[in-house]
Design a protein that fits this description.
The model has no long low-confidence stretch (mean pLDDT 97). The N and C termini lie far apart (52 Å). The protein has helices spanning 5-11, 15-34, 44-51, 56-66, 81-86, 102-105, 115-125, 130-134, 145-154, 171-192, 198-221, 231-240, 246-266, 291-298, 312-315, 326-338, 349-361, 376-391, 408-428, and strands spanning 71-74, 90-93, 137-141, 160-163, 277-282, 302-307, 366-372, 396-401. It is α/β, with parallel strands linked by helices. Helix 18 links the parallel strand 7 and strand 8. It has a domain at 5-195: 3-Layer(aba) Sandwich (Rossmann fold), CATH 3.40.50.11890. The chain is 55% helix and 10% strand. The chain binds iron/sulfur cluster (2 copies). One iron/sulfur cluster binds next to loops.
Length: 429
């Protein structure tokens, strides 16, 4: 890897603490990702992106900034990427997937707050994330209570703008959300000095839709039996989708899909066809949070689909680019994002229906529900998902955890018992 220390220093990174962070990642990546068997050759690109997580991509963002362009950071799949691209800025996802600077974080935030929020804040207060330091604007949203109150504190550390996300999907909610999308568009125009035009919006929609279509193609090939790619590799790709350059990313995903489609035709897989097929559902797993998929796949399961924000919730719907004026295109973008079925919405029946459909389409043998401790929306909604699984006679396992490694042995024991039960069900079929 090149020497990026000068660049990190200029961004205000705490170099000593950052060295310690970077020392932990390669052995973890080796164990969780690189040591897997039969990995597709085209995963090489994503391995490179990860190995350069604080290097090459940051260098790209810094050189954009040197050319007068802006970088915008987001924390949620509801913040429309298209708007950022339409004003010539870069968009990066900033959710944290590692326990970081906990002592400092807990001086300010409560201990019993979701690990994802604490992690994002840890990267900021610990001065450990070149992405957040490269950002000219951080865009938050009023999703769960923890996040919306957290943004008030984050505003003391950076330039924060918060979108108001409604909690229901009635017509008056849609009107509010459309107005919020317009307001963000105005804020981004102000930040960059660029006006959104029909052409720039259509191009941005095309770029982000292409990224979504590439990811949908990847999900389609994961229906194959035996599975042609591991759940961990698919998750890694979904995580990288949040910060890589979108055009290059889509091209690489499509090239990987060509390889995987060939594998599917040849009946070649990464696991045996008898491996229990798992639908994973629940809270987002931000990079480098691979804890549960690693436990599942090490125990012999094949994760075949993620009903997560680092999964299908991020790319399921496309934006309709047919309107011929800026206002119409902005409405079209707003409407697409309002389709997302996060548990912060009520009622949220569409999510239940989507989970049922995914379980059928991916021939899932079991549903594993992942809840981050202290996440009210997802821990409470688990009840309804469990009920839906019972109606489908789909075995259900609920795992509530955080980012620590302390409960790995305990989760592994529960996962092994669950997989054993799935195995005996299959044998009796
Ligand atoms: S789980 Fe909900 S609040 Fe969190 S990133 Fe996804 S959509 Fe946003
Ligand atoms: S995982 Fe839950 S508590 Fe955490 S930020 Fe997302 S919705 Fe909020």
């Amino acid at each position: 890897m090149e020497d990026y220390r000068e660049m990190w220093r200029n961004l205000g990174i705490d170099l000593d603490a950052h060295d310690q962070l970077l020392a932990v990642l390669p052995p973890l990546y080796q164990e969780v990702i690189l040591d897997q068997k039969e990995r597709p050759a085209r995963m090489a690109y994503f391995d490179m992106v990860f190995s350069e997580i604080h290097g090459k991509r940051i260098q790209e963002l810094v050189s954009l900034k040197e050319k007068g362009k802006k970088v915008v950071g987001t924390f949620c799949t509801y913040v429309p990427e298209e708007l950022t691209l339409a004003v010539g800025a870069a968009c990066v996802g900033l959710c944290g997937g590692a326990e970081i600077a906990t002592e400092e974080v807990e001086k300010i935030l409560p201990r019993n707050l979701c690990a994802l929020i604490k992690s994002s804040f840890g990267f900021k207060v610990g001065k450990l994330c070149p992405y957040v330091e490269a950002c000219d604007l951080l865009v938050g949203e009023t999703t769960c209570d923890g996040k919306k109150k957290y943004y008030e504190i984050l505003a003391e550390y950076g330039n924060v703008y918060v979108m108001e996300l409604p909690q229901r999907k009635e017509e008056r909610d849609r009107s509010l959300w459309r107005e919020e999308v317009r307001e963000l568009a105005r804020r981004l125009e102000e930040l960059t000095g660029e006006r959104m035009t029909v052409e720039s919006l259509k191009e941005a929609i095309r770029v982000v839709n292409n990224k979504r279509e590439a990811l949908l193609r990847l999900m389609e090939v994961r229906k194959a039996r035996p599975p042609v790619i591991s759940g961990k590799d698919a998750l890694l790709i979904n995580q990288i989708a949040f910060y890589d350059e979108p055009r290059r990313f889509a091209k690489q995903v499509n090239e990987l899909c060509e390889e995987l489609e060939k594998r599917a035709q040849e009946g070649k897989g990464v696991a045996d066809d008898s491996a229990p097929r798992i639908l994973l559902s629940g809270c987002p797993m931000a990079i480098p949070n691979w804890k549960l998929p690693h436990i599942l796949e090490s125990a012999g399961a094949a994760v075949v689909m993620e009903e997560l924000c680092t999964g299908i919730r991020y790319f399921r719907y496309l934006v309709d680019d047919s309107p011929g004026d800026v206002e119409g295109l902005l409405d079209s973008i707003a409407d697409r994002y309002l389709e997302i079925d996060c548990a912060v919405f009520t009622p949220n029946q569409r999510r239940i229906e989507n989970i049922k459909q995914l379980a059928k389409e991916y021939q899932a043998d079991g549903l594993v529900y992942y809840a981050i401790q202290f996440c009210d929306p997802y821990t409470v909604e688990a009840y309804r998902v469990k009920k839906a699984a019972e109606e489908m006679e789909l075995p259900f396992l609920y795992i509530e955890t955080d980012y620590s490694q302390e409960d790995v042995a305990q989760i592994s024991t529960r996962v092994e018992a669950f997989l054993e039960m799935l195995g005996s069900r299959a044998a009796n079929r």
